[in-house]
Structure prediction request, 253 residues.
Amino acid sequence: GETADSRAVLVEVKKRGYKALTMTNVPGSTLSREANETMLLHAGPEIAVASTKAYTAQIAVLAILAYDIARANGKALPFELMPELARVATIMDSVMSQKELFEELAERYLKTTPNTFFIGRGLDASVCLEGALKVKEISYIQAEGYPGGELKHGSIALIEDGTPVIALISQPKTNLNIRGNVKEVVARGANACILSMQGVEHEDDAFTLPHVEPLLAPLVTVLPVQLMAYYAALGRGCDVDKPRNLAKSVTVE
Prediction:
């Protein structure tokens, strides 16, 4: 709630006469004080510079807000949100209890590499950006997240023998497309790691997550990539809690 460029946007929004809602994990933060309304995440203190639980809490709160707006506008909703979020929370606990598997994946794919790529489509592409950011922030590996459909528009030229490519597959409608992208990078020498969800999994995938409502999948799919970044950092001797050159809040524009 202290980021300078976000505050600049808030100032402009209010100047134009619009109401503003701040979603923050910190009561009394600058953005909270200056907005018309505040919605707290209640994720608890986030000590590390690289945000994790505040990230997932924000997705959950945004889902609740979007669901209530849709219901208020008379939209037909395909599932009951709160029971599904309860399932998601249970599955998140289950995934975290298997964290040693992600330590092994980080050892296999990330420990010694100078660079890596995350690819996905739809909502998975957004989670790939988070995975790449976490890898960059705490393990100092050059990492990029790409929508699978953009691979042929230049980024595939960076694939070399042994380049790790982490692929996320949770959305049934993009399953075949992203697996086609994986085949393309493997044909060029990539070392591919597929993280999938039940319902779209293949037997040779590195890890399969329990199935959740596809619209809420980012709450679950983000955990493997965050854990892999964490264990990659530990394996490379990096300080996970205090990554170099980074601050908790960017207070200048």
